[in-house]
């Protein structure tokens, strides 16, 4: 529908804006989950070149019929990004990356697929460039899983949340830097009427009992250890089971 097209175009525009591309030259961008090429139209209008990847032949056929300017590749990004190192000046993705959190086949491991995607994307991007991935996370666990695998692959950066206080307009953009770490852009709608900033939403887990003044669990406390283990489990790492001895202090000598 036209409403969907309109929202998609706005998000593409915002994603390209968050890339912070140089204005004096055309760039080559990767569009992950390019679908029928709506984001690509915006990239072309801005004078840049693009290659789009998508897992759906039907969507890519629509892109071909629409005679989009970019090159198209039918591929599952969970298998990795098959381009040579440093080829792209940036990457955008509109509402696609959250699908990597689903295990559609028995053999699919979401942490592994995400890591494969992010590590090969990291390689395919030029140093100093960015990837901006707009996504619809199902919950805070998904966001943490996605972010953790991106950081594991070498990216720095974080989540930019536009309109965090609006149920409808709220949008998540994972803004990732390759090489030199940039400053994370500010989310739209994060300033109140009087110019005060609203602090961006941080995702926390249930365990909030023993928090120090800064809101962190006291370092090396049982809660801190359990939270750390839980984070590592979500990243797909092997972690020892929790027992009544977890985080217990040892006596100074046996």
Index terms:
single chain; 254 residues; alpha/beta; Rossmann fold; seven-stranded mixed β-sheet; elongated; methyltransferase; 18S rRNA (guanine-N(7))-methyltransferase
Report on this structure.
The chain is an alpha/beta fold. The protein has a single domain, classed as Vaccinia Virus protein VP39 (Rossmann fold), CATH 3.40.50. It is 30% helix and 19% strand. It contains six helices and seven strands; from the N terminus they run αβαβαββαβαββα. It has helices at residues 2-19, 38-45, 57-65, 110-124, 140-152, 222-234, and strands at residues 28-32, 49-54, 71-74, 88-94, 125-135, 156-162, 171-177. The chain has a seven-stranded mixed β-sheet, with helices on both faces. Strand 6 (156-162) and strand 7 form a beta hairpin. 33% of the residues are buried. GO terms for molecular function: rRNA (guanine) methyltransferase activity. Pfam families: Methyltransf_11, WBS_methylT. Residues 176-251 form the 18S rRNA (guanine(1575)-N(7))-methyltransferase Bud23 C-terminal domain. Residues 30-106 form the Methyltransferase type domain.
């Amino acid at each position: 529908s036209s409403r969907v097209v309109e929202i998609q175009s706005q998000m593409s525009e915002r994603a390209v804006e968050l890339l912070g591309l140089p204005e004096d030259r055309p760039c080559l961008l990767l569009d992950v989950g390019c679908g029928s090429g709506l984001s690509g139209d915006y990239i072309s209008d801005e004078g840049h070149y693009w290659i789009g990847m998508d897992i759906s032949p039907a969507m890519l056929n629509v892109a071909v019929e629409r005679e989009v300017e970019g090159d198209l590749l039918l591929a599952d990004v969970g298998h990795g990004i098959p381009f040579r190192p440093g080829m792209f000046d940036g990457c955008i993705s509109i509402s696609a990356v959250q699908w990597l959190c689903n295990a559609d086949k028995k053999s699919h491991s979401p942490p592994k697929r995400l890591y494969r995607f992010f590590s090969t994307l990291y390689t395919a991007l030029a140093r100093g460039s960015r990837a901006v991935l707009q996504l619809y996370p199902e919950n805070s666990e998904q966001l943490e899983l996605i972010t953790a695998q991106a950081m594991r692959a070498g990216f720095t950066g974080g989540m930019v949340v536009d309109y965090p206080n609006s149920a409808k307009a709220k949008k998540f953009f994972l803004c990732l830097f390759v090489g030199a770490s940039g400053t994370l852009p500010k989310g739209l709608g994060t300033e109140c009427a009087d110019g005060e900033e609203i602090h961006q939403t941080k995702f926390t887990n249930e365990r909030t009992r023993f928090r120090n003044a800064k809101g962190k669990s006291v370092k090396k406390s049982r809660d801190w250890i359990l939270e750390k283990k839980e984070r590592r489990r979500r990243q797909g790492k092997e972690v020892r089971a929790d027992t009544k001895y977890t985080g217990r202090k040892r006596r100074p000598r046996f």
